[in-house]
Known about the structure:
Layout: H1 3-14, H2 18-37, E1 41-44, E2 48-55, E3 58-61, E4 68-71, E5 74-81, H3 83-90
Antiparallel strand pairs: 1-2, 2-5, 3-4
Helix pairs in contact: 1-2
Amino acid sequence: xxxxxxxxxxxEESGQKKADVEKTLDSLASVAAAExxxxxxxxxxxxxxxxxKECKAREGRNPKTGAPVSIPAKMAVKFAVGKELKDAxxx
Length: 91
């Protein structure tokens, strides 16, 4: 599903204009990014939640040459699936 298709589907189901849905999704992305940068969580009702996770620096290997490579620490986003979505996917 593309962003355009998602916007159209949400607009159809909610009765909102496509432009309003697009603004809402863009706002969600910026608010979520700000919250995750601060180390918080973003609940997504009916789906689950996004969590910020710190990945420590580690030593890796170049798969081609086998030479050791230093991998720096970074922040990553983890999605924890909620019970509603998990149950819906079971069928």
